[in-house]
Amino acid sequence: MNPQTPRRVARVAVVLAAAVLTACGGSAGPARWDARGVAESISDAPFTPVNVNSNLGVGRTRLAFALFKPDQTLVIEAQVTARLYRLAGDPEQQPTAATAAGTFTLNARTIDVADHQGARWPGDRPRGAPGAPAMHDVALAAPRHDAPPAPAHDGALSTVFTAMVEFTEAGLWGIELDVKAEGKTHRGLRLTLRVLPHTSEPAVGDAAPGSKQAILKDVANIADIDSARPPHLVLHDITLADAIGSGRPVVAAFVTPAFCQTRFCGPVLDTVVLPAWKAYGDRVQFVHIEPFDIPAARKGSFNPVPAAKEWRLLSEPFIAVIDRQGKVAAKLEGIVALEELTQALDAVLAAP
Question: Strand, helix or coil at 113?
Fold first, then answer.
């Protein structure tokens, strides 16, 4: 045998291996989770994946990602799979240190905002019109430097991609997405996620705050506690505290159709909360709470109501499903699909 043959074979093997990895969308080395590695992983994609959760905490959590195009519209149709990793404490020092923690499929959750653009601001001026109050950057808290951009845009359809995962400990986690959209598959798109020991709002398994919000008997005008048009009286006849004390499961929907900061409250109320009430209202207590003081909001001041403060919410719309024991069983934030809420209700109704 020619003494050069083994070297040639070795070189050919390396080239073939690299070609296979390239064809599969992989890389010749382990994934890097430092800032440069994460940026390079998404640099060639025609969209940017963004984590739109207001905060993440240890335990069962709903992850939600939006795929932003350069014009800030959203990818509506895509097939998304993900791999979750526990990262090192400092990826800049240990960029390849990652422990696999599961693979899952993300589901598309789409709402149509086309029929929910009629809410008016003071003086009957459309939102965003000259002289109308400015939109707040974050619904119930002072703007944060790390707050994700609200996925609102000029299109009628808005989509996020969601999955339920279990974070076993606080710290830095990574997620690697494979996205098939418009006939092309983009692999290994990476994001890092900071998981807190506990979310600002109650975590799944925590006791739900028994808020005593204003209800029908407390106000002269239903419009002061419900900005929907028309308002839904049946969702305002019991306090959250009394609903929790009834021994029945509860849906607490913090939504404000007229003053929503993300444009999603109206669609979520109309296409998720109300259909669920029609299907489950004989077995589940439904409570609608406006997160802002409506009379003040009409004047341009966005003051959270006591219930929103008690729940320590950072975003809206926000839906909590509470079990018969008064504990939070599920949390749904932002764009929500009816299927997500009904699955959570079926689970609490099936539980003893």
Answer: coil
For the chain, list the domains and their CATH numbers: 30-114+155-196 (2.60.40.10), 216-350 (3.40.30.10)
DSSP string for 4-54 = THHHHHHHHHHHHHHHHHHHTT--SS----SHHHHHHHHTTSSSEEEE--S
In single-letter form, the type of residue at position 192 comes to T
**DSSP codes, 295-307:** HHHHTT---B-HH
Higher-confidence position of 250 and 265: 250
Q: Which two tokens stand for residue 268?
A: 């979520």
pTM of the model: 0.81
Handedness of CA 248, 241, 226, 204 (dihedral sign): negative
Q: What distance separates the 2 farthest-apart alpha carbons in the chain?
A: 98
Name the most confidently modeled range: 122-136, 141-155, 225-239, 260-274.
225-239
Helix (H/G/I), strand (E/B), else coil: 266: helix
Residues 150/262, Cβ–Cβ less than 8 Å? yes
Instruction: Say what the pLDDT of residue 260 is.
Output: 83
Q: In angstroms, rounded to a whole number, what is the distance separating the alpha carbons of residues 150 and 72? A: 10
